[in-house]
Amino acid sequence: MLAARERFAASADAETARLALHDHLARVIGTLEPRTLGTYWPMRCEFNPIDAARDAGRPLALPFCTRAPRQMSYRMWDGAAPRARDECGIAASDGSEVVPDVVLAPCLGYTRGGWRVGYGGGYFDRFLAAHPHVTAVGVAWSVSEVDAGDYAPEPHDRPMMLIVTERGVA
Fold first, then answer.
1. CA dist 17 to 11, 115, 167, Å?
2. How many angstroms separate the CA atoms of 135 and 80, rounded?
């Protein structure tokens, strides 16, 4: 899935897709009207949600992961280049801890039923299990769609409320 996403991100269609995904994501965020929006700093050819998140005009937060115990929290973020790294080496905020009411989750893969395939660490699943009131929005390139028959959710997996791609809401 990562290789397919990398090929797509390097393709001639990527810029058009990026603009479309930005517009779809901005509309979804606007409809949800979060009090605090948990976003993510992109890596590995993930869609960059930062402009759409900033455009929402809502307080922002970035995830902060620890290895022991293996968990994820969010920290308030001012929208500037992150000044910290979490224990997994991912760009993070040095702000105060907060629980956003809406979070954006990057998807390595996804199903139309809202199941998210991540990198296997279970950080988002554990966060969502601990905070069931949080609205989770998956963000993915449509090339990352996995046929529902090829994906069997495990007991710890938590579905996204919806998945946003450059084609719209899946």
1. 10, 22, 8
2. 24
Q: How many domains does the chain have?
A: 1
| Prediction pTM value | 0.94
Q: Is residue 107 part of a domain?
A: yes
Q: What is the tens place of the pLDDT at every residue in 39-96? A: 999 998 999 999 999 999 999 999 999 999 999 999 999 999 999 999 999 999 999 9
User: Phi, psi (5° rounding) for residue 138?
Assistant: -80, 145
Handedness of CA 65, 129, 119, 33 (dihedral sign): negative
Return the CATH number at 20.
Answer: 3.40.50.10420
Structural contact between residues 52 and 25, judged by C-beta atoms closer than 8 angstroms? yes
Half-sphere exposure of 68 (CA within 13 A, CB side): 0
If one counts every other C-beta atom within 10 angstroms of the C-beta of residue 28, the result is 20
Query: Could you list the residue range(s) of the whole structural domain that residue 55 is in?
Result: 2-158
Q: Which residue has the tokens 């090829």?
A: 150
On whether residue 168 sits in a domain, the answer given is no
